[in-house]
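User: hey, got a sec? need Geranylgeranyl pyrophosphate synthetase folded
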Amino acid sequence: MASPTISEILRSDLHKLHAPSSASITNIQQLSSYNWIEAPSGKPTIAIPGCPSLWTSPIGSKRLPKDHGRVYIAQNAYRHSQSPLEPLFRALYFSNPSYDIRQIDIVTDRNNIRKLLSYVKGGVRLEAFTFKVEMVEKTAIFCREETRTYEDIGPHDFRGYGHEFEKAYTKNEIEESTGHHRVISYRFGNLNIIVRHETDGIFESLSVSPSKSVTTMPAGSVLHIKNEGHLVPLESTLEIKTRVFHKPLNFNDIAPQLWVSQTPQLVRAYHNKGTFSEARVENVATHVKKWEEDNQKDLVKMAALFEKVVSLVRESGGIAMVRYDVIRNSLVVQMCGDETKMLPEDLYSKWKDDKKSKDSGTEGTET
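Assistant: Yep! Here you go:
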């Protein structure tokens, strides 16, 4: 039996929502990062702060095999299904122990924002998507829901060359790393948002010696944490896109992804039957800003949609599912059949620490 619907939001009604006058990203802060590690024990393990793979483009052309083997659709859920968002918060408080989470309105993966923006913009056929929303005090936590968290590409399947390109053109800086995730915050419209996103690489190496320490495990958690790597500035991060040479990549198709994560560097790599011509890194920060300016109409609607979703979830008991209904072409907010908490219990105390300090006459610390 389907869960009761709280509200249905039609694209044609988005202009009726209360919206900010503008919806630009400001006050960008880099908070933390981590790498997933393929641990011999099979236990979920992350390295904080980790490090993205280093861009090491060879000179001239290079022929690559097609993608094969296991690729991740949602690696956080694949490796830590009981709490895909826990690594985000562990990395955040590992790097910023006194961080004031109460100042944040929404915590989410980049994927959720990209899907909501596609819904707002329209014009393309969207696949069904779902994410869960849990309110903790005034903060809304968005957790993506996927029917599959990985794909195994067989010898007779063809999914392009993107993953093999990354293997050939970047070098792991963290041993046994299977992916680097970053956590940033910014102001968008009237909201303070924390965004987690995956980064393909860094443009230049830093002369910092990686640190290593004994692996630890927080009380009440099964997640193992290694102190390894070094924090890389946002301006050095890059996104990699591959495409067959006769279908040039349109920047406007890539821009939303770069905009959400504020990634300033881009590699557009083109191939002819798996042979790639020499690829280079482009600084596209000004192009991303121009895209933001040109798309204010849709971004303002999205900011209003965020506020509407959060309001509906808060008014309906603090936990709900948001899903895109392909048949009705609408966004549906409905009661959540599974009210399992998203985070380990100790992390919820981070929203209460300030209350305790005020009760004792001591002011909380903000960073």
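Quick note: The first strand starts at residue 5 and ends at 10. Let me know if you need anything else on Geranylgeranyl pyrophosphate synthetase.
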